[in-house]
């Protein structure tokens, strides 16, 4: 469910048509807008809380940004520093700081799920095996028919996350990844001595 066009127009007015991520003007063409929940909705989906949910869905947390800016920020969680870097007036930043404080417990709990999932994968993308940092990783469900729990969680890189947008696509990619693992024995750890 996207933020309603009414909320998007209010957000556009609040930042005077400026993208909070890059500071450049947005198009007046509403079809080019990309609505952004600054504190991501994933947080209340993984850490259910009615209170956090209503704060994240509140008008103050919704912005309009460039589509490419939204892609870039993707999975990085908000921090006090990232709020300070927002291209917006002091009032908007102050509101965001309040919102951050009010949702901080949920953000911390979400980050812990993500960190422990990432660690259990050896800090690599579940699908392509690329090395991942916490900010570069996106938390997804392994099986979309099951609840969002730590057991059903995996971390993907941005690229795989984008490609695995649909359930069927995700299942196919996960299937291929586990086939690859079965067919190839993992490389031996380098010991410094040549192996035969
Ligand atoms: Zn932008
Ligand atoms: Zn990947």
Q: What does this protein look like?
A:
By secondary structure, this protein is mainly alpha-helical. The protein folds into two domains: 1-105, no CATH class; 121-183, no CATH class. Helices cover 45% and strands 8% of the residues. It is built from eight helices and four strands. It has helices spanning 5-14, 42-46, 50-56, 67-73, 80-84, 90-120, 158-163, 167-183, and strands spanning 34-37, 62-65, 138-141, 153-156. The strands form two sheets. Strands 1-2 form a two-stranded antiparallel ribbon. It is globular. The mean pLDDT is 90. It binds zinc ion (2 copies). One zinc ion binds at residues 125, 127-128, 130, 156-157, 159-160. One zinc ion binds at residues 19, 21-22, 24, 65-66, 69.
How would you summarize what this structure contains?
This protein is mostly helical.
Topology (elements, then pairings):
Layout: H1 5-14, E1 34-37, H2 42-46, H3 50-56, E2 62-65, H4 67-73, H5 80-84, H6 90-120, E3 138-141, E4 153-156, H7 158-163, H8 167-183
Antiparallel strand pairs: 1-2, 3-4
The protein binds zinc ion (2 copies).
Q: Please give the largest β-sheet.
A: 2 strands, antiparallel
Structural class: mainly alpha
Number of beta strands: 4
- The number of helical elements comes to 8
What is the multimeric organization of the chains shown? single chain
Question: What's the Cα radius of gyration?
Answer: 19 Å
Strand percentage = 5-15%
Low-confidence stretches: none
- Looking at the structure, what is the overall shape? globular
Q: Trace the largest sheet across and list its strands.
A: 1-2
